[in-house]
Amino acid sequence: MSDISSAGSARESAVDTATRVFVEHRELLFSIVYNMLSSVVDTEDVLQETWLSWASRGGAPGAERIDSPRAYLVRIAVNKALARQAAISRRRETYVGPWLPEPLVTSLADGRAPGDAEDAADTAERTQSVSMALLVVLETLTPLERAVFVLHEVFGYAHTETADILGRSPAAVRQLAHRAREHVHARRPRYRTDPHLRQQVTERFTAAVSGGDLRTLLMLLAPDVTLWADGGGKATAAGPCPVRGRDKVARLLANGATRARRGLDIRYRRVNGDPSALLFSGDSPFAVLVLDLVPDGRQVCGIYFVTNPEKLEGLT
User: Fold this and answer.
1) 222 — phi, psi (to 5°)?
2) Which of 19, 149, 233, 261 is 20 to 30 A from 188 (CA-CA)?
3) What is the pLDDT of residues 180-226, one digit of tens each?
4) Among the three residues 190, 220, 240, which one is the final residue of a domain in this structure?
């Protein structure tokens, strides 16, 4: 009887240890996988699969000791995210209208999700997400190029570490990294707008749109501005294709404001790390608005408008 009790205690201890280790690394895993997939729902599914693999390995009594749980968990999560890419690509083929990443929303104050009890240190890794604009560019990479770019450029993994994670040679990883970096930087030069200036421009922009102020919109918009509106065929959107050009975008926004629902409430949050706007109709989220600014931060060059209700679930 005592042997059975001891075996049960050992199994419980192993499971408790596996759970603690996974929880310690969950935010890092979330951030890496989200930046690979651009979907909170798919990221949570991958983390669940990662947990099940980890629990069966790390929670087994007498299992061989894992020298680096962090590296082991990242390897599981990254490869499961890569495996999920095929299913995601099939969904995108039948998606209605422009597709945008699922917004990752946190508060303006400290990057903490509204109502979340985690402390700032725990949320730091989760909010280490690239901007909405960069996520859109990352969608044009191959899955392997994107994984290498995220691991190296966003999280600082050495090419040798990335090679171990992906089961590739360091030379192959360096080649993937070079292609990805050249591709991304050609479409998205490196710059980061001051958050306070971004907040100011976002507030001016939303006020101009709400008021149908065409003159102010024309001043705020860059000549080559592009508007992406993602309704997924389930909500209001600008059309089946992105809208390009200052005059077209300004008139679309100004006319759209006059037809929009009355009583929309604007709340400012961080979306993928950048000050942005959430629009609510009563207690229900109506849209997420993210602006991309030119390098000096004074004009808007990209507008990302997400109204697909499936991508707004859980927003407060």
Assistant:
1) -70, 155
2) 233
3) 999 999 988 777 788 899 999 999 999 999 888 889 999 999 999 99
4) 190
